Amino acid sequence: MLPEGTFAGQVALITGGGTGLGRAMALELARLGARVVVASRKQENLGRVVREIEAAGGEALAVPMDVRNPEDVDRTVRAALERFGRIDHLVNNAAGNFVVPAEELSINGWNAVVGIVLNGTFYMSRAVGRHWIHTGQRGNILNIVATYAWTGGPGVVHSAAAKAGVVALTRTLAVEWARYGIRVNALAPGVVDGTGAAAQLWPEEATRQRLLGEVPAGRFGTPEEVARVAAFLLSPYAGYITGEVLVQDGGLSLGKPLLQPPLSPFRSPPGAEGPGSPNGTRPPAGGPRGV
């Protein structure tokens, strides 16, 4: 879609860049001429991506870091500037998620997901944005979110709340930083094969087939498709787009939230049992819920 050399002379920093969508975006931006900084917690994953990029003739840097740690964030930005002298694009892709009913979610689990998805996105955006504003450089930020950010969905209260915050962050920064020549957009992929999220959110084949049957396009997306759209949003061809959230899910979110695992029947609180509710259980109003 984009001509060769679209990002020649530019530098892209991608969090969560060692696997899945992060890896795919790193490879695509490198293919289009960008020098790439990939950052995540696992050095072995980052090393593989750097070797792939270098084998194809590109330049890349791996920086092990945790986006929940502001000191790590600042160190990563410094490392990118020391190696390449500039940062032109920031992709906030680092994420964490797992399916769990809200009442069973631990405080540590909540803090871990919100810390990575929402806090980490802000820490990275703030660090890179401050550099751009101070130096007078234009730049682009792309945040990876999910369609349940505006619908919610059972089993993902932590991730949905965090990604909803990222959507608000995207639009707020877009308005505040437009005067500095900084664009801020978000991309909301649907069900994508070949990612860590797939293994966490639909590990069983039955769940996979059920989800597949609900995608109007009749198939799941690929990391490469997401990478191509991400490259467009970062490119000059999207130069008048900011504060936007682009959905790329084969039509799945048009009918219902992305992920709706079957819910157990509602259980009334102790002492709330009434006629017609044996053992204190009853379905929610409107009948049982499920996908």
Report a brief summary of the structure:
The chain is α/β, with parallel strands linked by helices.
Q: How does this structure look, described?
A:
- The structure is a single chain.
- The chain has 291 residues and is an alpha/beta fold.
- It folds into two domains: 11-260, 3-Layer(aba) Sandwich (Rossmann fold); 266-291, no CATH class.
- Helix content is 41%, strand content 14%.
- It has nine helices and nine strands.
- It has helices at residues 20-31, 43-55, 70-84, 107-135, 148-151, 157-177, 196-201, 205-212, 223-234; strands at residues 11-15, 35-40, 60-64, 89-92, 139-144, 182-189, 245-248, 266-267, 281-282.
- The strands form two sheets. It has a seven-stranded parallel beta sheet with strand order 3-2-1-4-5-6-7, with helices on both faces.
- Helix 1 (20-31) links the parallel strand 1 (11-15) and strand 2 (35-40).
- Helix 1 (20-31) packs across helix 9, helix 3 runs parallel beside helix 4 (107-135) and helix 4 runs parallel beside helix 6.
- The radius of gyration is 20 Å and the shape is globular.
- The protein starts with 10 loop residues before the first strand and ends in a 9-residue tail after the last strand.
- Residues 265-291 have low confidence and may be disordered.
CATH superfamily of the largest domain: NAD(P)-binding Rossmann-like Domain
- Work out the helix count: 9
Inertia-based shape: globular
Spans with pLDDT under 50 lasting ≥5 residues?
265-291
Describe the structure using short key phrases.
291 residues; alpha/beta; Rossmann fold; 2 domains; 9 helices; 9 strands; globular
